[in-house]
Amino acid sequence: MKDILDDSHELLRQKSQEVPLPLSKEDHDLVLSMYEYLENSQDDEIAEKYGLRPGVGIAAVQLGVLKRMCAILIQDYDEDGNVIKKEAYALINPKIVSYTPKMAYLKAGEGCLSVLNEHEGYVHRHAKVTIKGYDELTKQDVTIVARGYNAIVYQHELDHFDGKLFYDYINKDHPFMAQPNAMEIE
To answer: Which of the residues 26, 79, 87, 157 is marked catalytic?
Structure first.
């Protein structure tokens, strides 16, 4: 956690650069350590022991590296706490190549490992996106079709590459005004 920049740091507002492939050892190690952070942050015992805030995504710029790399770990659990579905990537140069016009938002709002203060309000994003990039976990090009919550996670992380934070999208005058026909996600 100590290495994650907070939103007062100017780097978080800068554009990240494309990353040459194959990855350098330094970039490989960085993106895998980002993924490892997400795994550890989602393990209650490890997170408590080391004081980690749980996360489902992290971008390299949050660690002070202006490169288009991010890690994603979205897990679904059954009633007993067992993982039943896992979406895991260490993405290099991911890009949204298509999206639906339908919008969605998280009813509880978004959070970010780099944002320590509360920013209440709805963040409207595309309800479905298609992303292309290179995955360092599987060492191959990937095409990801994400819907609902997962689509929001990807858009949030890719926004970091352009210096955008989730609260930039909140309507300052009417933070809890839902756009017409937007999908609310619990």
So the answer is: 157
